[in-house]
Amino acid sequence: MLSRRHFLALSTAALAAPRAKAQTARIDVAAIEHDRILTEAQKNNQTIPNQTAAFLLTKDPTYATKTLPLYQSLITLTPQPDILAHLPLAEAAVALRFLVDALPEADLNTISAYFTQIQIHLHTNRAMLLERDTHDHRASAWLLISSAIARYQRDENTLDANRALFRKPTLRNQIKADGTFHEELATPNPYRNSLFNFDLLTGTCQLLASPFDLLWDYELPDGPGMRSVAAYLYPLIKDRNKWPNVSDATNFHDLPGRRPGLLFAGRAYNRPEYVDLWRTLPINTIPALAPTFPIREPLLWITRAQHGL
């Protein structure tokens, strides 16, 4: 039988453990990514997310200014019937949250109007609505893009609607109780698409979760939720050879790459081992796999922008 002192000691240790884990999992991502971000910012193939991340780190307006022609090129693209063609817009919308005081107001209004047009397209175009209602990564892509635009525009109605979509149709349609994406397992590249979907859904959680809506912890009564997905995929990302299903038809040995989903889930669930694995994985990937890495600058996704964006 436990003595009162022993019981209190065990209780104190149990309460302190999550806090210790949280401190370990909440690493300084800005410090870790600093050199890589600034090195890439000097390269010729500049991107909106990278230039914005460099601006976030240095506060040098030169980096913010360099995003303007990139946005101007982006907004010339017309809406497409393929949801994956719109996927770069998600991180571009996330980046814009950090540029509201750095870009000319007229240009910012033009860019914002374009994102409004895309949001309307997502919600009214028949092809887009069919993509939203699929049971695989295409639905996740729709949710990520719509949520990123809504977060930038402070569109609480769309954010609430997307939270409802995430909680029921998404979890029910895509995730089994053991944490697998059953639709992705039926594709020619099940490992790649499972990791792709993991990043899409964890990115969506980063955008939609709040102290008043703990999407990270939400689970259906029979188990499906993001916690089970992270727990299932972690050892398979750590060791690709443990993948229990059919290997991908192409580029299996070029995976997994650095998955931002590990960083996001590690922070959300206080799992430092997830974050440690994220740090050790290679950053660069081959061009054939680049489209399956929808989030290139996770620093933008974990940092709160000014004005509450």
Describe the model.
This protein has helices at residues 4-25, 29-41, 48-58, 61-74, 88-96, 105-124, 126-132, 137-153, 156-174, 182-185, 190-208, 226-238, 260-269, 272-280, 298-302. With 309 residues, the protein is mostly helical. α13 (260-269) packs antiparallel against α14 (272-280).
Largest sheet: none
Report the sheet-strand fraction.
under 5%
Number of helices: 15
- SS elements, strand count: 0
Low-confidence stretches: 1-22
Given the C-alpha coordinates, what overall shape results? globular
Report the structural category. mainly alpha
Rg over C-alpha atoms, rounded to the nearest angstrom: 20 Å
Helical content (DSSP H or I, runs of 4+): 55-70%
Helix-strand sequence: HHHHHHHHHHHHHHH
What average pLDDT do the residues reach? 92
- What's the end-to-end separation, in Å? 53 Å
Topology record:
Blueprint: H1 4-25, H2 29-41, H3 48-58, H4 61-74, H5 88-96, H6 105-124, H7 126-132, H8 137-153, H9 156-174, H10 182-185, H11 190-208, H12 226-238, H13 260-269, H14 272-280, H15 298-302
